[in-house]
Amino acid sequence: MKLPCIVGVNRGPTVDETPSPRFLGTHLHPDNIPSSFYAKKTKMLVIFRNPKDTLVSFYHFSNNNPVLPVQSWEYFYSHFLSGDVPWGSYFDHALAWEKRIDDPNVMIVTYEELKQDLSEGVRQISSFFGFSLTEAQVHQIAEGSTFTAMKESAANSHGTMGNVIFRKGEVGDWRNHFTPEQSQEMDEAFNKHLAGTRLGAKLNYQLHCQ
């Protein structure tokens, strides 16, 4: 399977040089994923987070990233809501995956679900990919996949970007950033785009964002 790759100095193996089965992480819009992925029935695990915490996480990632300009909260909030940010509109992205929610090769899980019961998430994800795990293996994977565990090992896994990528990992940190007016505006955007959809229901917006 040929995949695009970024070539640089001292690069590691490209995806097509790695033996199957292989893992590829991406933020691509589903319409921009190569058609060969769908033709070859590639398994796709899609992780969504509620839009308010996504905005907060994206804001801090951008401002803590040394290669990106620092932006005010108000500026970043307005651009996120209008979709004028890298990778585009959160809601357009969500609606595109909503169209693929019945695809047997697509599994959509939420960050909040994994935070609530990570072991069950490991079981469901491993089953989706066709792996049969013992309970001991589930426990071991879940233990190493908590936000705390990943943050503690971030220097080894992500180098100097570790503290940029792993900040708090909390559900509901948006309450420390949004004004009441901004919260209401996001509520209206969610209702306009995702109310009544299955992905919208899966995000459990009323519990996590109101």
TrEMBL record:
Output the InterPro entries linked to this UniProt entry.
P-loop_NTPase, Sulfotransferase_dom
**Enzyme nomenclature, EC number:** 2.8.2.-
Name of the protein? Sulfotransferase
Question: Which of the seven top EC classes does this enzyme belong to?
Answer: transferase
**Keywords (A to Z) from UniProt:** Transferase
Q: Which residues form a coiled coil?
A: none
Protein family according to the UniProt entry? Belongs to the sulfotransferase 1 family.
Mind telling me which SUPFAM superfamilies this protein's record contains?
P-loop containing nucleoside triphosphate hydrolases
Sulfotransferase domain location is 15-197
Question: In which organism is this protein found?
Answer: Seriola lalandi dorsalis
> MF terms per GO, please?
sulfotransferase activity
Key word Transferase present: yes
The transmembrane residues are none
